[in-house]
Each structure stands twice: as C-alpha cells, then as structure tokens.
Amino acid sequence: MNPLKRLGRRRASVLGLLATAALLTPGTATGAPDADRAGTLGAQAAQSGRYFGTAVAAGRLGDGTYAGILDREFNSVTAENEMKWDTTEPSRGSFNFGPGDQIAGRAQARGQRLRGHTLVWHSQLPGWVSSIRDANTLRGVMNNHITTVMNRYKGRIHSWDVVNEAFADGGSGQHRPSVFQNLLGDGFIEQAFRTARSADPGAKLCYNDYNIEDWNAAKTQGVHRMVRDFKARGVPIDCVGLQAHFGTGGPPASFQTTLSNFAALGVDVQITELDIAQASPNAYANTVRACMNVARCTGITVWGIRDSDSWRASENPLLFDRGGNKKPAYNAVLTTLGGTPATTRNAPTATRNALAATSGNPAAPRSAVNAESNLFTRANNVSFPSVA
User: Fold this and answer.
1) Which residues of 325-340 are buried (b: 16+ CB within 10 A; e: fewer)?
2) Distance CA 209, CA 81 (A)
3) Angle between the N-to-C axes of helices 188-199 and 218-233, in degrees from 0 to 180, rounded to the nearest 10
4) Ramachandran region, residue 165 (left: φ > 0; alpha: ψ -120 to 50; beta: rest)
5) What residue spans of the chain are helical by DSSP H?
6) Residues tagged active-site
7) Is the dihedral of CA 162, 165, 168, 172 positive or negative?
8) What span, in angstroms and rounded, lies between the C-alpha atoms of 182 and 168?
9) Three-class secondary structure of residue 340 per DSSP
10) pTM of the full predicted structure?
11) Is there a contact between 27 and 345 (Cβ–Cβ < 8 Å)?
C-alpha cells in the first residue's frame, strides 16, 4: 500500500506513521522547512522580513526577568513614554533625551530596531504647549520640536509615529479638538509630516491611531480618506499604525480588509500597540494571521512584555504572565508567524503531522490556515484609547 495513503488513516499504527514520516521531506506539510523556523517571536518574524517588537519602559530595564525576555524575544523596540513631548521637551526649548537615549542605545547595542513614538499628540503634552494661543507661535514650536527630536535619533529609527490619535471617536470621521487642530486647522497633520520628512528623509513616517481596525467605522474611513489625499498630493506619508487594543473577542471581522485597503493606497501598515483582554490564543492568532496575509504589513508591536507591565494589567492582555512565563497566546503567535514552540521545535514536521493524524486532527497545511483569515470572532470586541 502506498505509504502516503496510510498517513491519512486513523487506524494506522503509530509505528507505521512514524515510518511514513521518515520518508517525507520535513516541513512539506506547512510549506516551511524546520531549518527556517525559529523559536522566538522576533527571529521568526524576521524570516518573513517583518519585525515583532514591544513597548519598553526605561524604568523596568533593571528588572532581570523583564530585560531577559526583551533581549530574547523581540527584534524591535518602541519607547513607551520616553520620547513623548512631556518627557523630551518639558519646557520650551529645553530638551531632555536621557530616558529616550537609554532605550535607543540599548536597542542599538543589541541589534534591535527602533520605532519612534510619538512627535505630535494632544495627550501627554506639557502645559506650556497647551496654553499657546497664537497660531504662528504654535506652528514654530511644533516644527522645532519635530526637527530637534528627529535629528537626535536620525539614522537610528526605522519608523516614526509623526502624528498620534488626531481623529475623533464616534461617527464624524473628522479630527478631534486639540490645541493643534484648534489653532492650525486640518493642515497641522500635513505640516507635521512635511517637517518630519525634511528632518529625517530616511525614516518611515506613520500616522498612528486606535479604533481604526474596523473597516466599516467612520473613524477608519476618515483616516483612509486622509491617507488617500496625502498620497494623491505628494504629502510624505509611508505607513499607518493601527494600535489594536482589543477586547476579549480580538480583531473585528474586517481587520484584514482594513490592512489591505490601507496598503492598497501605497503605504505600509503596522500593528503598533497590540494587547487583547484575557489574551485569547485564537484572538492573538487571528490578529497576527491578518498581518501575515498582507504583504505590506511590516511588523507587530505588543504594548508591554508581562501582564504586570501593561496599562491594562487587570485584563491580563499580554503574551507573558506576571512571572514572565509564556502564556498559551505566545505559542499561538509563534505558530502563526511560522515558528515552532520550544516543546515541539525539534520534532520533524511530518512526524508531528503523522502523530496528529492518529487522533483524527492532522495539522492543517498553511494554505488551509490562511483561508481562515477572514473568519475572525468579533464577540465581545471592544477597543480602547491608547495610553501611548
């Protein structure tokens, strides 16, 4: 009997299946040789030319468990608060780069990429900026801040969140009120991007926001219209960051469509602040799979390392528990990236598939997994404003 046919039979003996597996080329069932798989998030994401990063707090770098996970698992770093306006320019013209430099220098020394976050945001803004009442003064202050901060990290940051959360929640699809919007009007975003391009032509320039993951939402449509307009008029914008702060149900059903539709405008898309209430493995896998299915989705950042490090700590939304142990969602993410969790990393792919067949649950080929990418669960889905 053809051994390939025996592989699909539930009644075949385990010994027979193992013998069959030995005849098969490792990795053929999933389309990726075992040699090309990695056992950490960053290393596996790099196999497809992507990054897998995390938000980092300078004050936690002295924690050995925290730093150990950071160095082992992630190939990209975002400063959680250390590059925001209230830290970098607490008083006009007086810049403080100490905390940002600590994170940037450490990442550079370890070969980790660096995302810049964030240059223009209505929140975590010093009072001296919020109290400006003259448009020309604010425009000069904004341009100087962007230029000074970007020059500090020029050549070290691959992507900058130039403007963060400028669109209002609800059904308007318009900008939210802020000192920038109120004094400079709709054009402040364009001005910020043009200034950023002049400051560092080598960095990718991103617009970043929350609640823009659902294609049907008015806020998503507003951002999409802006990006389309910018591309049509030659305003420099290279990427859209979708924060992806999800509830227990994970991403909305249209999430991959949203990624694809932004990418179709000629920009990269990045998942920039991912966390999911209660860290359902399926919800995390669906989020990562959507990115993997869109060629211009260039990377994923989770917003913190351990549950105890999260701004949503009570919801246990991250990939590592409070003790730094990998949660089931970690294995789901690594597997969806194409990697192999440590417990099974050394077993040949065909052997694992063969063993799975004895229970009637053969491992699905990657094409079958990809076909499920639009079947996301939306039950209990909620999105949250960023603390970023």
Assistant:
1) ebbebbbbbbbbbbbb
2) 16
3) 50
4) left
5) 3-6, 14-23, 41-47, 64-73, 85-88, 98-109, 127-130, 135-152, 179-184, 188-199, 218-233, 255-263, 281-292, 328-337, 349-357, 366-371
6) 165, 273
7) positive
8) 13
9) coil
10) 0.81
11) no
Q: Buried (b) or exposed (e) across 94-119, using 16+ Cβ within 10 A?
A: ebebebbbbbbebbeeeebbbbbbbb
pLDDT in single tens digits along all 388 residues of the chain: 433 333 333 333 333 333 333 333 323 223 344 445 789 999 999 999 999 999 999 999 999 999 999 999 999 999 999 999 999 999 999 999 999 999 999 999 999 999 999 999 999 999 999 999 999 999 999 999 999 999 999 999 999 999 999 999 999 999 999 999 999 999 999 999 999 999 999 999 999 999 999 999 999 999 999 999 999 999 999 999 999 999 999 999 999 999 999 999 999 999 999 999 999 999 999 999 999 999 999 999 999 999 999 999 999 999 999 999 999 999 999 999 998 887 544 433 333 333 333 233 322 322 222 322 332 233 333 443 445 5
One-letter identity of residue 367: S
